[in-house]
Amino acid sequence: MKTQVSATFFILILVVHYTFTPIPKCAARDSVTYKPAVFTDPNRAEKVLSTAAAVDNIFKQFGENRHMPGLVYGVVLDGKLIYSGSFGYANLERQITADSHSLFRIASMSKSFTAMAILQLRDAGKLNLDDPVSKYIPEMKEITYPTTDSPEITIRHLLTHGAGFPEDNPWGDRQLADTDEELLRIIREGITFSNVPGVTYEYSNLGFAILGQVVQRVSGMDFREYTRKNIFQPLGMNATVWEYENAPENILAHGYNRVDDSFVNIPLEHHGAFGAMGGLITTIDDFTKYVALHLSAWPPRSGADTGPLKRSSLREMHHPWRFIQLNAGFHYPDGRECPVVSAYAYGLHWMKDCNGRVYIGHSGGLPGFGSNWTMMPGYGLAVMSFDNRTYGSTSGINIAVLDTIIKMAGLKPRTLPASDILKKRKNELVKILPDWEGAESSGLFAGNFFLDNRLQDLVKHSKTLFRETGRIISIGPMKPLNQLRGTFIIEGEKKNIEVFFTLTPEKEPRIQQVRMSAVKKMQ
User: What range defines the domain where residue 19 resides?
Assistant: First the structure.
């Protein structure tokens, strides 16, 4: 239930540097230790496992309604494959059933692997994301930009679909097997822009094909060999390949299109220069290991960091770097309206809904295939699904599955524990209320506090609130917003008081701002 504010008093503080009140001996210097967010749900895995039958039915109906030859899926929680399922065939001609070992081409889900390779090279000091691409691909120096004030295309522009290239899905999907020389010839002959670089988002397969060339030029290795050695092998993704001829035929999914109520086999394309944008072939079992790596980046914390990409760089991949849109009319598959905002990260899509839930992942579509993976870092939860029908598109159904799991399992997101300094300052603040006795000499408040707030006004307001509240029943726990700010409730007989405060960035954080509001008691 939402509480209603009956009286609100705002004490607005601007952080300024004045001579601070000396810290008394009783306020010894604290070691401010970061406390990561934690899950408080008991039996999380068991709760998610209990949703298996419902999720299986959702995917089954989806596959049947879309006439998919084959469909495979998996649900990952806290880095582990909790359950998986499959329907239909990986190969219709040979009647080879699809399962979690089947190798599906995952199309544009491949883009985050290319982005990961770029960040590995950046972390190794071999490139900078704001370097012009022409530093590594000299052919880019010859392109003609749409305006004289256009910035030169950078690696970051390509990572976030901000290079100004036109959306090129129909065309790009048919370039998969192009050689490096054929891609470079496209560049040399001239690229036509739809926008000036750096001003807006527009999805570009060409951009990620060029990033694949950057990986090769900087590393001195073939793109396939680089990703195998630096991503697949460290993660144990031993079945994953770029070239379909390297996949065992008995587990390789073939792609199909549906024409006149029958399936037509779409010949598989060889790996080429455009493979970096959409050519990866993998299994549910293998891709689980990749999903687990991404989930392991959350929450930020201390401790060993042994993945093929640092946790901080993974979180950088997940950040919403380039705005896509605000969708005020977004509806969840169950029909409820919930506006969302979306952006592009590095080789990944990012979305945040009206309830603050964050979704990160990517879809994929090629002639013969469709796919999607979506994770919710705040819940430690992810779902992935691959199919072998042209542009099968499992993006919407994956969102429906995640929503269903959360509702059925009653999952809660990670919650942030109150830091020791927040709890300490809360207890110190409570002791001086409502009279603010000794506040000015307490050492509890930052130097700006009493320059921005008259003591008599503070006393008057808090005494009024305490009179309205009546007898104090209890002091509630600290509810942190982050390590240095949060709220707590003073529960009264008639009303409650919500207290918000925020601390300074000093070595010894002190209170720079306080807000106290009377709120109705929860029924």
Answer: 5-35+417-519
**And the tokens for 168?**
């090129």
Q: Give the pair of three-digit tokens for residue 302.
A: 């201390």
For residues 151-155, average pLDDT? 98
Q: Are residues 104 and 161 in the same domain?
A: no
At residue 342, the 3 state secondary structure works out as strand
Same domain? For 393 and 510 the reply is no
Residues 108 and 348: their CA atoms lie apart, in Å, by 10
User: Per the domain annotation, does 234 fall within a domain?
Assistant: yes
Record the tokens describing residue 429, joined without a space.
């603040």
Q: How many domains does the chain have?
A: 3
Q: For residue 23, name the pLDDT band (cuts at 50, 70, 90).
A: very low
Kindly report the CATH number assigned to the domain that includes residue 175: 1.20.58
What does the pLDDT average to over 348-352?
A: 98
Return the structure tokens found at 363: 């879809």
This prediction's pTM: 0.91
Q: Which two tokens stand for residue 4?
A: 């209603």
Integer Cα distance of 184 and 165 in angstroms: 15
H/E element, 501:
strand 496-503
Using an 8 Å Cβ cutoff, are 35 and 483 in contact? yes
Q: Which residues contact 407 (CB under 8 A, 6 or more apart)?
A: none
CA distance 336 to 346: 30
* Contact between 273 and 212 (Cβ < 8 Å): yes
Q: What is the pLDDT of residues 290-318, one digit of tens each?
A: 999 999 999 999 999 999 999 999 999 99
Q: Is residue 443 a contact partner of residue 24, using CB atoms and an 8 Å limit?
A: yes
Place of tokens 């739809």: 194
Residue with tokens 């013969």: 368
Model confidence band, residue 523 (pLDDT cutoffs 50, 70, 90): low
